[in-house]
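Sample intake — glycerophosphodiester phosphodiesterase
Collected from: Promicromonospora citrea
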Amino acid sequence: MSTPLRTRVARVVAATAAAALLLPAATAVAGPRPAPAEHGGGGPAAHHGAHPGTHPGTYLAPSLAGRATLSADFLADGPPSGADATPANGRTGPWDGQVIPGFSAMVDNHDGTFWAQPDNGFGAQGNSADFLLRSYLVRPHWDTGRRGSGRIEVLDHIAYNDRDHVLDFDIVHEDTPDRLLTGADLDIESLVRAPDGTLWVGDEFGPFLLHFAADGTLLEKPYPFPDGKSPANPYLEPGETPDVGSSRGFEAMAGIGRYLYPVVEGALADDGDARRRWVYQFDTRRGEYTGRRWAYQTDQVANVIGDAFATGRDSMLVIERDDFEGDQAVTKRVYEIDLSERDRDGYVRKELVLDALRVANPRRIDAGEGYGLGDTFSLPVQSFETVLFVDRDTLLVGNDNNYPGNDARVPGTPDDTEMALVDLRRTRVADDGVTVVGHRGASGYRPEHTLAAYETAIAQCADYIEPDVVSTQDGVLVARHENEISGTTDVADHPEFADRRTTKTIDGTAVTGWFTEDFTLAELRTLRAKERLPQVRPQNTAFDGLYQVPTLDEVLDLARHSRTCDGAPVGVYPETKHPTYFDSVGLSLEGPLVRELRRNGFDHRHAPVIIQSFEVGNLRELNRLTDVPLAQLVSSIGAPYDLEAAGDPRTYADLVTRDGLREIARYADGIGAEKDVLIPRNADGTLGRPTAVLRDAHRVGLDVHAWTFRRENQFLPAEFRSSSDPDEVGDLVGEIRVFLDAGLDGLFSDNPDLGARAAE
């Protein structure tokens, strides 16, 4: 079968378009320094519409260049703080000084120092009255793996204040001369320095735009958000409904020329699309919003926007993140968006610049000091909230540690504040010739058919991710192994759905449980995924109850915004589940599937997509509807259900005869065969000799992929088992290599990291 993913020329993120407009860096990275630009990014030198980072056959490979940390328990000078903070990780306030709970925004001074701004303190208006709003002058002493202490030095600070009595609502220090602002007054999250040295700050309580002098004094009244208020807005009228979610205001803001571009962190309350985030334009000269805004779509509903940084007149970096931390984290990404380019749904174009969960760490900087610190550097913190270019090839990323609550690195220990330098170097796209498919994602490590499983598969070097596709009652395609969901979700724990438990006949077999076609998407969204094989993979049960059932659209979005370890676009390998059954209940899969592929730009013959099915008729129909490659799935027993239902006597064994394979080649591009069809096992459980199926399939132009390779002993041939314990891990790499030596083109594995290793 055609595997266009492996040969398709990769589009490269245009991050290096910043080359001519980024400010001089205070790092040891070699290279010419471009001229300064306004507002930290988009001044007169900015390229308009140019993408010099895009080169055929190359991609931007990230690697860790330096890291520096500030102890979570560091206290700056000032009055005690945290009297009302929620105790966590062995820390209870108040603390004898001002806590620095990480940084939510940062400005490069281009002399080795940065102004770094924490947020409102301890997470809420009600517990942050003793936290003073400040911006700290810091100097990171980068640990590069060769030199540097890895320490963040705190040099000075400015205190945000309203000493000129600009505000017309009461503040905590209302009657003091300096009127220092606190986390109970405003929630400052984003920061842009204007050419005149004044500071523009994005707030979440209003949300407001705040204009401060360089010394931190408020210069003018807050500019209110034109499209609503948050629950903490001091001007909220009694009975008025907030349109902005709590703590979902201006977490991110970029500055380009005279304009600010604040980004709403979450969806607006009245927005029917929960994945939409809005980028607004504010004119600093006129002191007003221009009325222009742009729609950005997150990878999934719960994701939020963490920071923004201008890279050109129409472009900026945006952090998109989830609220998980440690090994639960799924999305900690930096995308570049282009306000001048929109996709077919009206959203701004976005391209991946950095997946902060997978950064090469060749010098093993701080390896072994916590989760995500090893051969691969990961920033698995909950609040990934700082990104900026320090030169044309290097990003600086950092975190808000939500002191004392976050413990992503070492459970039970508060996270330090981190700053990391990530080099983005152009590398050629590679091809090892073997297609590795993350079976239902990396289902050996995360509950199957979740975005966490798919993201893990991508991080483990899968070339394709595989969603099994079923339909909801309202015709939305979602990823589940079966339409019966009691084994893969917590539906049985929802008493409101108890009456939907029923028995149905699926492909001739009576099945009792709960079925996707009896739920709307909104109802299905209230459920959470769980591990399907808890006896075999008890470690995966730690993730039970965390992740939603993803739509096919979300899976396609994740793939099209990702890159494989080789730098190629990530492919999608959807399987249509029980198509004859879904036809019988008026929820045919073929049309909706093709429409979703088309809407996401995947419906063409060179797209990295392969559609698979155990049935024959729907593949023939799909062959008429789409140009993407198709794969006939083949089991070692039984027959395609549609043939069985029609009285056709052919079995799967008939399909893999020479004549059968020639017939498959008329409507499909390959087969996905159960392993035993290709290399059966001997009576003692060891691998036998390869059958003629591989040879015969190749002779008629069909590629051959095999399923399913799993690492536990019970799934392995006898010679590759490690013990008599069926759930212990055996030698999966050894088994896969036997199949590859026999001529296999690709493989489905619950453990794509081991599949990728076998293909090396």
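Post-analysis note: Residues 4 and 607 are 6 Å apart (CA to CA).
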